[in-house]
Every structure is written in C-alpha cells, then in structure tokens.
Design brief:
The complex is a heterodimer of chains A (475) and B (521). In chain A, strands 1-2 form a two-stranded antiparallel sheet. Chain A is built from 21 helices and 2 strands. In chain A, strand 1 and strand 2 form a beta hairpin. Chain A has a domain of 210 residues. The relative contact order of chain A is 0.10. In chain A, 77% of the residues lie in helices and 1% in strands. Chain A is globular and about 65 Å long. By secondary structure, chain A is mostly helical. In chain A, helix 5 runs antiparallel to helix 6 and helix 18 crosses helix 20. Chain B contains 22 helices and 2 strands. Chain B has one domain. The chains are: A mainly alpha (475), B mainly alpha (521). Chains A and B meet through helix 18, helix 19 and helix 21 of A and helix 5, helix 6 and helix 7 of B.
C-alpha cells in the first residue's frame, strides 16, 4: 500500500490522535508525574488535531484506496470530537480524583474513543464504520465502569455493554446483508447503485438493520432504554462524552452513509423512518424529562429529545439538513459539555447533590456558575441568541424546504414543552432559597472548559455564519 | 443603498452599557444607578435626534442599516424605522430612564443584576421595533423574554415564580409557531424571488401572492403569537399574574412597551403580509377585541387590588387598539398607533403611582385605603390626572386615540357593522366607572385605616418621574397632530398594502431563468 505525501498530510488529524495514544501509554508507564502531565498532554494533542482539522478543511480527498475521506465536513466533525474531548479532559482532571477513579488509562481510553469517532466520520467503507464504532464503543463500556467499586457504575457499564453489543449486532448483520446483496462494502458504490439495489429485499433488510443499530447509538426512541441508566451510573464527565461525542459520531456515520443519497431521487426513501423516530423521541424525551428529579437523568431524556430534533434533519434529507445537523451537533456538543461540567463541579464525593433541588439558591451562592448554567439551559431550550436556537432554526428551514412543515410544527411544540424543565433549573437557581449549603469547590481547569463552552455557544448564536459558510462549502 | 448607523448606535448604547455593568463592583450601587440612568437618557436623546431627522412625508423605511450577517441563509442585520415604529422607539427610550429612576429606592437587593436585565430589556424592545428582517426580529422578540423573566422572577411579589413561568411559557409557545411561519414564508419566497429570504421589504411583495389556503395558516401563526402578547381575549390570562407580581418598573415596561410589541406585530406583519387573510379574519378578531374591551372593563370593576384593576384595564384598552387595527381604515389605524402611545403613558403613570403608594404602605387593597386626599394631596392629584387620561377625558390623550378608533371602525368597510362601535364605546363608559370608583374609594372619604397615619406625600424624585409623562398626556390631548403626522404616511401605506397589495412577478423583479433553476437544485 502506497501513501503519497498529500494523503499522509490529509490524514494528520487521525495520525496525531493515534500517535498521541501511543505516547500517552509511554508517559503513563515511565513518567512519575504522569498524573499531571498526561491530561495536559492529552488536551494539547486534541487541540492540535482539532485546529489542524479546522485549518485544512479545504483538502478534500479520498485516501487509502477508497477507505477514508478527509477534508470538508469530515474535518469539521474531527474538530467537534477533538475539541469536545479536550473539554471533557479538562473537566475530568479534578473530577475523577473526587469520584475515585483516577487511573492513567482514563485519559488514554478517552483518546481511543475519539480515534473511533474520527474513523466513523471519515469512513468511506462500511467496515471502517464498524471498526470506528467498535473502537469507540468498547472504550465507552470501560469508561462507564471506571470505578469497579461502585455498584451503580458497574450496572451502567454492564447495561451499556449488553445493549450496545446488541445494537452493534444489528449493524454488523445489516452490513453482512448489504454485502451479500451488493458484493461490496464501499459506500460510494452502494449509493451510486442504490436504485438498482433496492429491488433486492435482502439489501433493504440490511439497510434497515443498519439504521436501527444506529438509532440505538444516537439514543432515539424506541431504542433509548439504556440512556438514562447509563448517564446516571457513569462518572459525570464520562456521561458528558457519551452524550456529545458518541451521539455526534453516530450522526456523522449516518451522514457518511446517507449523504450521497440526499442528492439523488431516492433521498426521500428514509423520510418516513426518521420522521417517526424523530416525533417519538422529541415528545418522549421532553415529556419524561419533566418528571425527573435527578439532573443527570433529566439531561439524559433531554438528550433523547435532541436526537429527535436532529432526526428531523435526517428526515428532511436535503443540503440544508446536512448543514443544519452538523451545526446543531456542534452547538449541542458544547451546550451539553458545559452543563455536565457544572454538574460535575457541584457533585459531592459519593455522587451526592445530583438532585435538582441541590441547585436551589445557586444564583446567590455562586453567581458566575449559576449564570453560566442559566445560559446553557436557555441554549438547550433553543432560545436566541444562543447556538442551540440557530441549530433548530436551520433544521426547521430544511424540513420546510422538504415540505415537512408538519414535522417542524411538531418540533416547535416539543421545544415548547422542553422549555419547562430547562427553565425549572433556572427557577431553582435564582428564585428559590438554598436548602442545603453544601460546599462547592470549583477549580480552574474545569472553569476554563466551561467558560470556553459557553463562549462558543454564544459565538455560534451570534455569528452562526462562520460555521455555516464553512459547512455549506462542502455540501 | 445608503447606510445610516444611528439606529445601530441606539441599540448598542444599552447593550454595551449592560455588559459594562457586569464589570462594576456590586457594592457601588449608586454609581450603577447613575450610570444606567445616564446611558438610557443618552439613548433617549439619540432617539430624539432620529426623530428630528426623520422625514415624515416619506412613507418608506428610513435610517436603514443593512449588513450581511449569515450568508448561507441570506440573513441580514437590517434595521430601519417608519413613522409607526419611530413613535414606539421614542416611547421605549422615553420610559426606560423614567422607570429606572422610579425604582431608585424600591429595588434594594441585587441592583447590579436588575440594571443589567433592564438595559438588556431595552435592547430587546428597541430591536423588535426596528428590525426589518424577520429572523432578526425573532431573535429580539425571544431574547427579550429572558430579562423580563428574571425581572418578574427575582424582584416580583409573592407568587412571582408562578407568574414568571407562566409569562415565559405562554409567550414562548406562541412565538414558536410564528417561527415556523417565518421559515415557511421565507421558503415560499423561493418561488417568486428565486432565493430564500427573510427580508421584510422583499416579503411585502411576495407574501400577498400566497394562495389563500396557505396564507390563512401563516396569518394565524403570526396572529396567535401577537395575540398572546397583546393580550387578546381569551389569551390574556398570563397578564394579570405577570403585572401584579412584577416590580413596579417591570409592570410599567410590561404595560408601556411590551404589550405594544403584540399590536405592533399585527400592524407591521399580519396586515401587510397577509392582506386577504386579514380581511377574512378581521370580523372575528374584532369580535374578540370587543369582547376583550367589555370583559376587561367588567373584571376590572370588581377587583379589590389596585394593581390588578390597572392590569385588567390594559386588557380593555388594548382591545381598542386591536379593534382599530382590524377596522382597517386609516383613521382607525392612526387611532390604534396613537392609542398604543397613550396606553403606554397613562397606564405607565398609573402603575408608577400604584408603586409609589405601595412602597409606603405595602398594601394594594382598595379597602385598606380611603381618605388619603388630605394626607397626600400631590399624589391624589396625580392619580386623578392619570385616571382621567386613562378614562379618555377630552383634552387628555386617551380621548384622541379612542375617538379615532371608534370613528374609523364605524366607517370601516371591512367590519361593515356599527355594532362593533357601539359595544366598544360602552367600554369607555365602563372605564370611567371602574377608574373613578376606585379613585373615590382610595382617595375620598374618612381615613379609617390607622396605618395610613403619617403617610408621606410624593417626593421630588417621584414628581420628576411623572411630570414628563403628564406633559405628554396633555400635549397629545391638546395637539395630537405632532404625533399623528409622524405616523400618517406609514399608516396610509399599510392601508394601501391591504387593499392594493404590491404583487410583483418574477419578470418585474428582473430575475432570469437561471436563478429559478438554482432553486430546483
């Protein structure tokens, strides 16, 4: 196999992360100060990969004999994953010590999961998708159970593993059926002969199984059962990674496989499927979130609802939808990371203070933290002028352009419901007196990460054009 | 196109001011107050500059500033004013410094946060009135909710949390449907124009061509959102809660400016964008408006709480404005515009006066008062003045607006029935009943409540706040032409847009085939 310099250069983001993993292992093994060096090395490595990806988006190519795509929106996804992981790493530095799960592997496994995500986004072949998915998922199963002594974490890990493996089974079986009917796993070949292939029932079953498997991974109703338990049981920073990077990676894989079809006459083939799961996810997530008293579970249901909004974009299946979904994922990633970050700061030693009533009076006790969380809640609720609003707007534009006005209307109705539970946190923080004056220890590392996320959300809301222009260039 | 940045400066003053306030130490309460009042007064002076440079003989939007914002979706930062919005901009910049001064002593805790939210609120309100891009409009419309939500929720009365949430969810629900309609409209524009646009001026020529079966849905989505804000009967239930629980400054701005955003929206968007649907819907909405006039008045009559009484009187007064808008004659629309200003002034003054007395006695129950005329003569005179203005006494401002609305609705070819006018006119009589009855019970008679002993009259600061409002109340009452002529050409244009909508075909716009094909892609 021959790689020329340009191919090598385009692969640099993935190479940075892959090399970083090896170096991190060496640091962990040989350095006595690995506890302080490793996270910062990890952050710098992610920043390097992310900034490189963003800077070289124009180098669009397909490399490694049609296996991987580089440049364009693949790089935008790389940036989302790596910058998101950098935020998670910063949040983790003090959190995992408090949580009692400090092992050097922690940072390294985050790195491997990011490598998996990057492969999924870059895939041009179904096997690469599968490879990336497994690298990511196996890392996630380990991260969920990082502290063996906690029963809740073990339960979360096991549950995630069983259901995740089940979903992966669907995907592999789907790929097998697709291979059986198309005699190839090349995504380009399949999409260009899609009309021909759909005459084969085997192929259709394969595609359906593939989509169902990924519906698990994006946490859409009715494949969402694992989400609340896993988010609740896992370490908070890890749950942050699941809900953002994991979801974004699954969406990137769906876009990688379906994107070419959005151009063609068969683009609407998937509309009914995605429309149904989007309506169910939005309403189920928003309504059930109202009943939650644990803030991590609330965000888990909110994550189901957001999967629903994103699925509107997939149902619309046009160019605006692709741009809208990528924008939404970018905004959602940093909204959720910020929110989980603040939760991780408030969380006590033994996973205490996770009840939403612990947030009562936070506006008086920690004005900055409360202000940041309020911005994040308004952003998650989809209020302007924050990034979450513009993501929704773009997705609704896409839906209405595809004559799915009814879906957009259901989308806004569900957002109206979701306002209630996001607002409830703001109500508690500012309008209710504090009930339990537990100690809140903030640390600079986490604050940097949270402030960075919030600034990004505000910038994405006020100047969405920068990202939109970048993304639409490659569609 | 010629650019004029004055409006942008106007909106930047409170925006930058509120951000700067975040960096002032919260102990420096007085500095924060002077800073905020100074800034908002400066904004008022700037809006006066705009007023004096405004050409009222021109019906087009003026002071236009258009900057590309989001290229991918053809969204511009696009602001400008015509006569109608200029008056509301002036009302906003006029009331903001006055209400800030009025809350000088009533807001004691978290002054820094209060001032921050208040200036942010001014940004939102000004933005709503000057936006000429629907996307930009929507951003301001929604963003304005957040500061108001905090103002009610943090500095409000006992039931403030309930009121704040109710206010937020009601408004949000309505506006989300409007969001869908905005996008739908923009997507529809692709047909005739060849590109996706939220530019209001361009949509004015596109939207009237939309087939009736779609137009009516878009009309309803917009109207629903604005009707909640107005509030039109039966969507008014959030209003009494929000008004009663909000702090005085919040109530004044809520009644004075926020409610006008609803009626302004109907006038700016519903009528010109969907003229055919508006004509069909006009009788139904007018019926609701008239029901609101009478219902609001009757409910106000039985209130025992002064603030609640004023809140319900708003439902009644805003009913007049909506009737004026949907009567669709030039007189009635002129009346509606001037009535928006009037209501802002007189109800604003009433809320300020209720705040003045509440700060001293901590009660708003009518039964707790009585006979205060001897104790606080200046206050009693001011309350009389504001009540009479609200009642619509000839010679004061309320009369001008109500007269024009009743005259216009009587002649209206759309409503085509004088029953609307008859029932609406009864609202004027009811207004006299509930306000003067309230006045009698509060001010006249013997002092029965011992707690009222030693009640202090209005101080210089409070008089200073009310005096300018009273000057305008008299001015509009005696010489309304100053204000009517500002909006004259703009309202005439709205009427023209309703009956003779500009219908531009793609050929006239000079679009060739290639741009149409681009859409199909």
């Amino acid at each position: 196999m021959f790689i020329n310099f340009q191919e090598f250069f385009n692969l640099i983001p993935i190479i940075i992360v892959a090399t970083g993993i090896v170096l991190s292992l060496l640091i962990e093994m040989y350095s006595k100060k690995s506890e302080t060096i490793l996270p910062w090395f990890s952050v710098l490595m992610f920043l390097a990969a992310g900034l490189h990806s963003l800077y070289y988006t124009k180098d669009v190519s397909i490399i490694l004999q049609g296996m991987l795509a580089t440049g364009g929106n693949v790089n935008v996804f790389h940036a989302i994953f790596t910058l998101g992981a950098a935020v998670v790493t910063l949040l983790s530095i003090d959190y995992i010590k408090k949580y009692g799960a400090y092992f050097g592997e922690y940072y390294i496994i985050i790195q491997t999961s990011v490598l998996g995500m990057m492969l999924m986004a870059a895939a041009k072949d179904l096997f690469v998708i599968f490879l990336g998915l497994e690298i990511m998922s196996v890392s996630f199963y380990i991260l969920a159970g990082m502290n063996r002594k906690k029963a809740g974490a073990n339960e979360a890990s096991l549950k995630y593993f069983l259901l995740g493996a089940f979903a992966t089974g669907f995907i592999v079986y789907g790929i097998a059926l697709i291979y059986g009917s198309a005699q190839t796993t090349s995504i380009d070949f399949i999409t260009s002969n899609f009309a021909e292939l759909t005459k084969n029932l085997l192929f259709i079953s394969g595609v359906l199984l593939f989509l169902i498997g990924f519906s698990f991974k994006i946490a859409a109703f009715p494949f969402h059962m694992w989400v609340p338990d896993v988010y609740e049981g896992s370490p908070t920073t890890v749950a942050a990674l699941f809900s953002t990077g994991g979801k974004a990676a699954a969406f990137s894989a769906i876009l990688a496989t379906l994107f070419a079809l959005f151009n063609g006459p068969n683009g609407n083939l998937f509309t009914p499927y995605f429309a149904v799961i989007s309506v169910l996810s939005m309403f189920y997530g928003s309504i059930v979130a109202i009943a939650q008293t644990n803030i991590k579970r609330m965000l888990a249901y909110s994550s189901i609802a957001h999967a629903g909004y994103l699925a509107i974009g997939l149902a619309a299946g046009n160019h605006d939808a692709v741009a809208g979904v990528i924008f939404y994922l970018a905004a959602y990633t940093f909204m959720n990371l910020g929110a989980f970050g603040i939760i991780s700061l408030l969380e006590g030693k033994d996973e205490t203070n996770l009840d939403i009533n612990s947030y009562a009076g936070l506006g008086n006790r920690k004005p900055l933290l409360a202000g940041l969380l309020a911005v994040l809640m308004f952003a998650l609720a989809g209020l302007p002028p924050f990034g979450g609003f513009f993501g929704k707007y773009y997705i609704f534009v896409a839906a209405i352009k595809s004559h799915l006005t009814w879906l957009a209307i259901l989308g806004v109705l569900s957002s109206a419901i979701s306002v209630y539970f996001y607002l409830r946190i703001v109500v508690l923080m500012y309008f209710k007196p504090s009930e339990n004056d537990f100690a809140i220890e903030t640390n600079n590392n986490a604050m940097i990460a949270i402030v960075f996320s919030v600034l990004l959300i505000i910038l994405l809301g006020i100047f969405p054009g920068t990202l939109i222009d970048l993304v639409t260039k490659f569609i | 196109m010629e650019q004029n940045s004055l409006l942008t400066y106007l909106i930047l003053i409170p925006l930058i001011g509120s951000i700067l306030i975040l960096f002032i130490k919260k102990e420096q309460v007085n500095f924060i107050k002077y800073f905020a009042v100074g800034l908002s007064t400066f904004a008022f002076l700037l809006s006066l500059v705009i007023y004096f440079q405004f050409d009222s003989a021109n019906s087009d939007f003026q002071f236009i500033n258009k900057i590309e914002w989001i290229k991918g979706l053809n969204i511009h930062y696009h602001v400008g004013v015509d006569g109608m919005s200029l008056l509301l901009v002036l009302l906003t910049t006029f009331l903001t410094p006055l209400t800030l001064i009025s809350s000088w002593s009533s807001i004691k805790n978290k002054v820094k946060e209060f001032t921050f939210f208040f200036l942010m609120l001014e940004v939102g309100m000004l933005g709503v009135f000057i936006s000429l891009d629907l996307f930009l409009f929507y951003i301001f419309w929604e963003a304005m909710l957040i500061p108001m939500y905090f103002i009610i929720g943090i500095w409000g009365g006992k039931e403030r949390v309930y009121a704040a949430i109710k206010f937020f969810i009601y408004t949000m629900f309505g506006s989300l449907l409007m969001l869908v309609a905005i996008v739908w409209l923009a997507v529809y524009a692709i047909g005739p124009l060849g590109y996706f646009t939220t530019n209001l001026i361009e949509l004015y020529s596109v939207a009237p061509q939309i087939p009736m079966n779609i137009q009516i849905w878009m009309f309803l989505a917009f109207a629903f959102s604005f009707a909640i804000k107005v509030p039109l009967f039966p969507l008014h239930t959030w209003l009494p809660d929000a008004h009663v629980q909000a702090p005085t400054a919040g109530s004044v701005i809520l009644a004075g400016v926020l409610l006008k955003m609803g009626t302004y929206g109907l006038l700016r968007f519903n009528l010109p964008l969907f003229p055919e649907a508006s004509i069909i819907a006009a009788p139904y909405i007018s019926v609701l408006a008239v029901i609101g006039i009478i219902y609001g008045a009757l409910v106000a009559m039985v209130q025992t709480d002064v603030k609640k009484l004023v809140a319900y009187s708003s439902v009644s007064h805003l009913g007049f404005v909506v009737l004026g808008i949907f009567a669709m004659t030039q007189e009635s629309i002129q009346g509606a515009v001037i009535q928006m200003i009037n209501h802002g002034l007189s109800t604003g003054a009433l809320f300020l006066l209720v705040g003045v007395i509440y700060e001293r006695t901590h009660t708003r129950e009518i039964a707790d008062y009585g006979g205060i005329a001897k104790l606080v003569p200046v206050f009693s005179f001011a309350l009389m003045f504001a009540s009479l203005s609200s009642v619509g006494l000839p010679g004061l401002n309320g009369f001008v607006g109500e007269f024009l609305i009743l005259l216009g609705s009587f002649q209206s070819p759309i409503l085509n029935s004088w029953w609307f006018t008859v029932f609406a006119a009864s609202g004027v009589i009811f207004a006299a009943v509930y306000l003067l009855w309230m006045y009698q019970r509060v001010v006249f008679g013997e002092v029965k409540n011992p707690k009222l002993d030693g009640l202090k009259d209005m101080n210089a600061r409070e008089i200073f706040v009310l005096a300018p409002i009273f000057i305008f109340i008299v001015w509009i009452g005696i010489y309304p032409t100053t204000f009517l002529k500002v909006s004259d050409k703009s309202t005439a244009k709205v009427v023209k847009q309703i009956y003779h909508p500009v219908k531009v075909s793609p050929v006239e716009l000079g679009l060739n085939q290639s741009s149409k094909q681009e859409v199909k892609r």
